[in-house]
Design brief:
This protein is of the alpha+beta class. The chain has 12 helices and 12 strands. It has a 4-stranded antiparallel β-sheet, sandwiched between helices.
């Protein structure tokens, strides 16, 4: 059931959903399966609208319970956290670990191989059962975790794109007792529950002082690279033993922090930070597409056209603000906005964001 159909009779549908949850007749509906290709091919299963309502209800119940268990250093899918907070914290521990970059330090950055497709459902449910005793919540949690979206879905977009997905990153190819669909709120939240055991091991057993994690990408920092090598082996052993996971063999970096850390869209070096080139190129591509697209004739369509362009540009420039990018922001505006400069003005000389010029809303 899609959002439009639900909203036509919203109260009735909510009461119906409530009854299904109360008498345990609720079952997840049909998902939408599609493939995104940027920055790399990923298989997405988007839950039905009414199922997303249930996902929010479940996460809202579980979040206060597990938030008390999570360590500070986990930044994905948590209130008052995110990529920008992760970068801010990483900058802080880089300064602290090097005494404001006056001495060398090293970092280890590792990634878990095919994390969402390798996650074991029985382990995840057992971790939740340790903290949750409400039988109704446990029933619903089990229903969502063990639901297989490949049994009831319809495909959207170009079906040929499915061939781009590696077998170890597709729910169609992994065993039925493992894997979570990418694209759902519950999957993101369950990832934190699953990897909380790893966080606790790193912070309390290995006693790593400088550590942070964003989903399955995490960083450890120490002044002695030998510690990092030992920790990596111990982490790999822990993952295999306790969570049935393994580190990605080709996505492990251990080197001096002076060479830069590529993390959640930014590159951090001593004293300054940059935005990844891929993100900048994506904006340039969008600006080129805007410049080549036909301008709407009607004033109302033209206004909506400008608002769409403004929203896209300001979202990218909002990202740029979290790095040392004044020259980049100015350069992109001068060299790549093209005809768009006729309609948008920078809010100030910092080029933090833009606004629509006070022009007649008509084609020029």
């Amino acid at each position: 059931m899609n959002a439009a159909k639900t909203e036509l009779n919203f109260e009735h549908e909510l009461l119906k959903l409530e009854k299904e949850l109360q008498n345990r007749t609720y079952h997840p509906g049909q998902s939408i399966c599609f493939v995104v290709t940027n920055p790399k091919p990923r298989e997405i299963f988007a839950a039905d609208f009414r199922d997303r309502i249930v996902h929010h209800l479940l996460v809202d119940y579980l979040q206060p319970i597990f938030e008390k268990k999570f360590i500070y250093h986990s930044f994905a899918c948590r209130k008052c956290k995110g990529t920008h907070d992760a970068i801010k914290y990483l900058k802080k521990i880089l300064r602290t670990s090097t005494e404001n970059f006056s001495r060398p330090a090293y970092y280890l950055q590792v990634d878990i191989a095919a994390f969402f497709m390798s996650l074991k459902k029985d382990i995840l449910f057992a971790l939740i059962k340790k903290q949750v005793k409400n039988p109704e919540i446990l029933w619903l949690t089990e229903k969502i975790i063990f639901h297989d979206p490949t049994e009831n879905f319809y495909r959207k977009g170009n079906p040929a794109l499915a061939k781009l997905i590696p077998s170890n990153k597709s729910l169609f190819k992994v065993p039925r007792d493992q894997g979570l669909a990418i694209g759902n709120l519950t999957s993101q939240f369950f990832a934190n529950i699953y990897l909380n055991a790893l966080d606790q091991f790193i912070k309390h057993d290995l006693k790593v002082k400088y550590y942070l994690r964003y989903v399955d990408d995490f960083i450890l920092i120490h002044e002695n690279p030998r510690y990092l090598s030992v920790w990596k082996k111990q982490i790999d052993q822990f993952l295999a033993r306790e969570l049935k996971l393994k580190l990605h063999p080709k996505k492990s970096v251990q080197q001096p922090i002076a060479k830069g850390i590529n993390f959640v869209g930014f590159i951090l070096k001593p004293g300054h930070s940059l935005v990844r080139r891929r993100i900048v190129n994506n904006l340039k591509k969008k600006l080129s597409q805007f410049g080549e697209s036909p301008i709407p004739d009607s004033p109302e369509s033209f206004e909506n056209y400008l608002k769409t362009i403004l929203a896209v540009i300001n979202s990218y420039y909002g990202q740029f603000r979290h790095a040392d990018t004044w020259r980049l922001r100015k350069s992109v505006y001068i060299r790549h906005f093209g005809i768009i400069r006729s309609y948008l003005d920078p809010v100030d000389l910092n080029y933090y964001s833009f606004r629509i010029k006070k022009l007649p809303l008509k084609k020029t």
